[in-house]
Protein 1
Amino acid sequence: MRVADVRMSSGREFRPCEECPPIPEGLEHRLRDRLHLAELHRNATHWRGRLVLALALLGPGVLVMLGDNDAGGVITYMQTGAAYGLGLFLPLMLLLGFVAYVVQEMTVRLGAVTRRGHAELIWKRYGPFWGWFSLIDLIVANVLTLMTEFIGIRLGGQALGLSPWLTVPAALVFVTVVLVFLRYWTWERISLFVAAFNLIFVPLAVLAHPHWHAVAMAFAGQGWAVPGGLLSVTFLVLISANIGTTIAPWQLFFQQSCVVDKGLLPQDIRAGRRDLLLGVVGMVLVATALIVLAAQTLKGAPNVQQLDAEVVLAAVRAKLGTGMMALFALGLMEAGLIATIVITASSAWAVGEAFGIDRSLNAAPREALGFYLPAVAGTTVAAVLVMIPGLNLGFLNLSVQVIATVFMPAAMLFLLMLLNDRELMGEHVNSPRRNAVSIAIMVGLIACNGLYGLATIFPRVFGG
């Protein structure tokens, strides 16, 4: 069947043959997308065809990594630059980019090979107990993270003279509309358009006129001194927060489900890896730019763990002027918006997969209320909570990032077990080298969590 034949069909009365019953609207949209990709594969015999195919396959990897540079992540990177300047954390971003690629690449293979989302595989492979465990972890972490996104949107808007009673509800309505009323392909293109503005922080860092020699020396191994030592409370909190803003449980659920909903197959794994690599490069570039920007505007600020968006925006205005502050505020709002879009989608997919209901963005609202409603409800709760006056925003932001680090080892354990299930993965099962690297990442996360816990219980011992 040709794509043209599918496109000639009308709405939900599409039939693959005269005798066949009508295909549900959601499945029809997925079939159209899959046939469209198949046609692009057939036409990829010259450079134009290959370019069109590459652009069509772009999406999940870029969205998951630029969505990871969320409003909370922006403030975490600024707190890091304020505390340690142009030092150890700059090259550390390269290492964290590698870690993110290793972890997220497994979700690309898992989704393309099994054509099942992460939550669905956990429930079917390991039963309801572990299914509930992973789902509750995800939903709690998502609501907390969404609070930091709406805080970024609220404070960024206030810096531009906009009332939070305008910006927060407007963002909530926008996210709801694109999730519920747009089909997957349109949702993805709009999300990519929003995500592209994440790169606004790169020219901001350049216009701050940093000491480029010091930046280069940081990557060369100079200036890595850590005031207070590697076991100080400040360092342990910031290292945990930076890890948490680089890899988080929602990313596993989001990218795998995104790969499935997009219709990628095993032959698309290489393209999925390229898509992910592009996203990782963007994530590292933005994170590095923010640390450099903070080193120019916030270095030496007292009590960096309590720095929030308001303090950061004021510092950018004082050092770089109102125009630069306005650009930073727009970037902060964009970071919160793109993260809200993708995190809300991850909640919808996870709930749909867990309970076996329609779990595609191609599903019409009237046919999949149980798919859309829980995700929208969770996002609404987060939006309402951030309107409460008197929240300790800096502490909340760091806490959310650290919580993501605490939840991550369990999430990675499920991911590794699934990737080593030969019945599921066949020839795409994890290699011994991939397992070794993944286990090393898990051990590093557990060690980081353990040290952070000890520093919290015995702060005097760790210089707190």
Protein 2
Amino acid sequence: MKSRLLALLAVAFALASYGDQANAIVRLLNSRASGSPKGYAEAAEEIAADAAAGRPLQGFVLAIVAREPDAPPAARLDEATRQKYLTASREKITKLAHRTNNSLAWYLLSIDSGDTNLLQRAALGGNVQALNAWGSMLVNNIIREGRSTNEIARVLGEAVEFFKKAAGQGDANGLYNLGMCHARGLGVPRDDEKAFSCFRTAAEKGHPDAINNIGWFFREGRIVGKDLELSTKWFKKSADFQNAYGEYNYGLALHRGEGIKRDDVEAVKYFKRAADGGCVEALNSYGLALLRGEGVEKNELEAIKTFERAAATGFPPAMENLAHCYEKGKGVKPDDKKAMLWRIRSKAARGDRAAQAWLMQNDKERRR
């Protein structure tokens, strides 16, 4: 199951006075949040054209997106142009926020300034995008900070209420986030049936991450009957949005021959795309393909480099693959000490306290 929660930036600008101008903005920012690089890039081209034609609202949103590391080519602006676009609309949006206490205006200002107080104000005002963003921030912060069990439960419970309010408005991102909470037991008891229901509704609204998760349910036979052919169709649908996890799972189905004819050459293509999209599982699978020469020319040295990139993210299976390579001398000189070290690192990454303690005392390379 995909572990990533909703990205902070998710805007659906729905002020009636802007009419059709809002549609591309909705697609631009919501496609990014829902895991659709394809939709993100296509909408960015439309927004960029509108911004260049002098539409200040489009320029404002484009300028915000331009700061993102994964901004599509059409949304990459030089700093002078970005500031020009921001200045053209910032004052109008600020006046709207103060004069009418418009929650959407507060939300736009919050993502422009990075001010979480404004984000909270927008969420409490009922803006659906702010509800998702604030709830996601609560979840991410409380998990990272490692508070007491009671405090974690309280904050996660608050986050769930924000997601429920967004989902109650039929928002696909809210439904996806609520589904993730049910799937992982965050703020609510773990409930696969409720998770599936949320994901299914979000998937029907075209949410690529939710579409991928529906494929997972059918692949695993969880709640629904196991159906590999159907699961593969869901994964392919998610992959068509260029969703990294959909691409990975579709590649996995091709490699295994699950619900589709086995095709390692095609599988490697999807592993590579997914890896480039940030899916560490796919990066590891691409390394295995290189190591074994499955669907791609065998290249043990490149496989080692690929495993090292995945291991650097803290992914245990990649660490175990490195241990195997050092033990067997694949792509590197045999080295039992390094093989042992990577196995211990893998155990530590999985939460083994004895392994963690050993590394604190002995892993000099990691402490440099």
